[in-house]
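note to self — DONT lose this again. spent like an hour looking for the file last time. sequence + predicted structure for the chain T wanted, 299 res
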Amino acid sequence: MTLVLNNVTKKFGTHTAVDNLSLEIPEKEMYGFLGGNGAGKTTTFRMILGLLDQTEGSITWNGDTIGYNKSHLIGYLPEERGLYPKLKVRDQLIYLGKLRGMTKQDALTELKHWLDRFKVPEYLDQKVEELSKGNQQKIQFISAVIHKPKLLILDEPFSGLDPINVEMLKDAVIDLKENGTSIVFSSHRMEHVEELCRHLCILHKGRQVVQGDLRDIKRAFGKKNLVIHAEDSLEFLQNYPGVVHYKSVAEGCELQIENESVSQSIFADLHNKGFIRKFDLEEPSLNDIFIEKVGASYE
């Protein structure tokens, strides 16, 4: 069930929040959205869900529009959390499960399964307001997946979580994908997108500036990163032909270079320059690509 956005634009009065966005999100894939605040990520998600109507363009899922008749097939974790603080976890999630067409018993079984998986079975009869923010996030996540959706939209799912809980949630998301769920998510953390997604889109002020397969995007970017750790000074590389960016670090330097052949020239010129402990040619990171395309580091 492929999700297709075709020339989608959303205007609020004179402000264009999303500008002519076209992309295709394959079935059983994890698709990443990157962009600063106000880039249009959340607006795009709300249009996909049918919570907002697009001004122009079309959004289809398996060739059809998304409406309330498909809500039992879709899960959504909004960036602004929306649980009822005074309700117990059990009552709240059974209610949300029933809204998605589940029986009370099925919802309770799934809820217990997820609480066990997240190592918090004792939260079943606690009120949401009694939980830490990180653990409220786990409950919010369970509410988005309890009905085993075919399409799952996660808006900043890892925000506010400590590293252990981030890994726990990442593992859960990967399992869902491998069991057939199509997942679209935005994240402030590029390494999460880099690790989890094969396809991605970088939005900037409502426009897509990069879109496609991560490997193709890196290949097209051309530039590479080179890390060198050495005994002797490497300052001569600051003005070396083909070196785009030079950064001195305690053990040596980190370079951004125009292409792989530059690394071979540097390697040859390091001969007789003392002991080289590390010479590591790396693919460009998503952060490198983001800085080049958007003009600012995004963290």
